[in-house]
Design a protein that fits this description.
Distance between the termini: 29 Å
Number of strands: 13
Shape: globular
Low-confidence stretches: 65-79, 125-136, 210-220, 348-354
Strand order of the largest sheet: 6-5-4-7-8-13-12-9-10-11
Radius of gyration: 23 Å
Mean pLDDT: 77
Order of helices and strands: EHEEHHEHEHHEHEHEEHEHEHEHHE
Oligomer: single chain
Structural class: alpha/beta
Helix content: 40-55%
């Protein structure tokens, strides 16, 4: 079998090769070290770390992103119940996001963490000058009263939201998945990131407004910030979507860079939907490192995908450098995708401000569910 063929994953010094071997084997990947000087292993260099070819996607996923690896190692001790994190604002599109999250969680024997965050208006007034005429003079007693009122009102809203979910479970609209709720004060995107680092979710599911409303709504900006900063897979669900079941998804577009990032993204998709039968269009975008007409790279990637993801069907397409937006819309209208998968490379704050990532841009332009995979 091709998957049993040993391939070289990396070449390191002896110490680093041993460390990598330990990390991978903890994740269930058998590792073989070669070219080790057994008499003086400490001074040996050029040690080959070799694995089976079929383990390559998972191995790349671990070594290419330490945050993702930390997520996996934390949940490894609790294999029975991985976590799906769902930030909500009690709106109808939050309920739609929960529909998706509960179906995904049921297929992975996962539990749900429902998170609501709020900002104390007293804190906003103390730290943000809203206008020259709008000022506040508050006391500690005022702050205590306001905080108590906010907590009480938020708890009532959460109770109503939970009742809606339980009603859906009773009607059989969503699977009976265990879930818990939490309410925290703070900047929403910061609190979501903090919670993700605590529970290490296999997926974060967030509801969004329609494309024409996102830029005017806070939830849109919160989701965009989470996409840009969070190092966990994020599933965005527009409010106009009507597909709730995994079997409803058939056409998938995966934004391709024709390198190992595509393997990371495909592996993440396959782990979420291992039993589904998707038609995946590998949409390659031009880059400075790769010419537009990289047919050999496309052919190699296509062959790899067909060999390792037999449950999926694959085809390729590409867009040119000067008309990316127009050609993407052309492909979008011809394929009618049910899901878009975007590998998302981490950027620093200045890069995010002046050159937002593709996932960020697609969030505001598309009404199709999107999975953003950090690579």
């Amino acid at each position: 079998m091709t998957d049993d063929r040993l391939i070289t994953l990396a070449i390191h010094t002896y110490d680093r090769a041993q460390n990598l071997k330990t990390i991978l084997e903890k994740e269930g990947i058998p590792v073989t070290l070669q070219n080790v000087n057994l008499e003086s292993p400490v001074v040996s260099s050029g040690v080959r770390v070799r694995i089976h070819e079929g383990d390559l996607p998972l191995a790349l996923r671990i070594i290419e992103n330490l945050d993702i690896f930390a997520c996996d190692t934390s949940v490894a001790s609790d294999k029975v119940s991985p976590v799906v994190l769902v930030p909500v604002d009690f709106s109808p599109h939050s309920l739609i996001a929960c529909d998706y999250a509960f179906h995904i969680a049921a297929s992975h024997n996962a539990s749900i963490r429902i998170l609501h965050t709020y900002l104390d208006p007293m804190m906003l007034s103390a730290n943000m000058q809203l206008s020259d005429a709008l000022t506040f003079d508050t006391t500690a007693q005022d702050e205590a009263i306001v905080d108590h009122e906010i907590n009480a009102e938020t708890k009532v809203l959460m109770d109503r939201f939970v009742k809606s979910l339980r009603d859906k479970i009773k009607r059989g609209d969503i699977p009976a998945v265990k879930f818990r709720t939490e309410i925290r004060e703070g900047v929403p995107e910061d609190v979501i990131g903090e919670m993700a680092r605590e529970c290490h979710p296999m997926l974060i599911v967030m509801g969004t407004r329609g494309a024409g409303k996102k830029e005017r709504e806070l939830v849109g900006s919160v989701t965009a910030e989470v996409l840009d900063t969070c190092r966990y897979p994020v599933f965005t669900v527009p409010e106009v979507v009507t597909l709730y079941h995994l079997n409803d998804i058939s056409e998938v577009i995966l934004i391709s860079s024709l390198d190992q990032e595509d393997i990371l993204a495909l592996d993440a998709l396959y782990r979420l939907y291992p039993m589904c039968h998707f038609t995946v269009t590998l949409l390659s975008l031009p880059s400075k490192k790769r010419p537009v007409d990289s047919h050999s790279a496309e052919d190699s990637l296509l062959a790899y995908c067909r060999r390792h993801y037999e449950g999926y069907s694959f085809r390729t397409d590409s867009v040119s450098g000067d008309r990316i937006a127009e050609e993407y819309q052309r492909l979008h209208h011809s394929i009618h995708p049910d899901l878009v998968v975007v590998p998302n490379r981490k950027k620093n704050i200045f890069a995010r401000l002046f050159n937002p990532g593709l996932a960020h841009k697609l969030l505001f332009q598309s009404d199709v569910p999107m999975i953003v995979i950090p690579v």
